[in-house]
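Good morning N.,

You mentioned wanting to compare the apo and holo forms, so I went ahead and generated the holo version with heme C. This is what I fed in:
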Amino acid sequence: MRLRLIASALLATLSLTGVALAQTEVITARREGLRGVGAHMEAMKAIADARGNPAPAVERIDAMTAFFTTFPTRFPPGSDVPQGTNPGQTRALPVIWTDNAGFLQANANMLTQITALRGAATGGDPAAFAAAFQQTGATCGGCHRTYRAR
Ligand code: HEC
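and this is what came out, ligand included:
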């Protein structure tokens, strides 16, 4: 009886640890992905600032489309802990789940804006690309303001 209790307590602890480990992996992977997006934006900023030929940006834009298409699936419930910026920690705010419709909308806005950016990149007009790029940065901020801790 007692042994069984101990065994089941042990099992419960193990499975809780398993959940915590899985969340840490989810958090690490999504943050890595977001840093990749940040790198794409940095590279495109250089093009926009220089009013360069935007055609080479298309590949990066397509990678961003792929990333944001599945982005909301990277937020399983409970992956807003532990809060912080250290490895394994997260800045995802609880409002992602309490206002999930808003979060999904912010992500949909991102995808719409990335489509517009792609149009500007293939259009080949440096000024139009720079304007769309600026708008894209603002759209990132639109989600961060509400759903990401500072
Ligand atoms: C739909 C919401 C949403 C959109 C859109 C979004 N982000 Fe984020 N971003 C987040 C959240 C939430 C976090 C915090 C993730 C975490 O800490 O687990 C984050 C974190 C980040 C980070 C920090 C990664 C790290 O190392 O911790 C970077 C960089 C980033 N985003 C870049 C961008 C860029 C650039 C864009 C626009 C092209 C963008 N994000 C669009 C929600 C969004």
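The chain has a mean pLDDT of 93.

Happy to go through it together on a call whenever suits you.

Best,
F.
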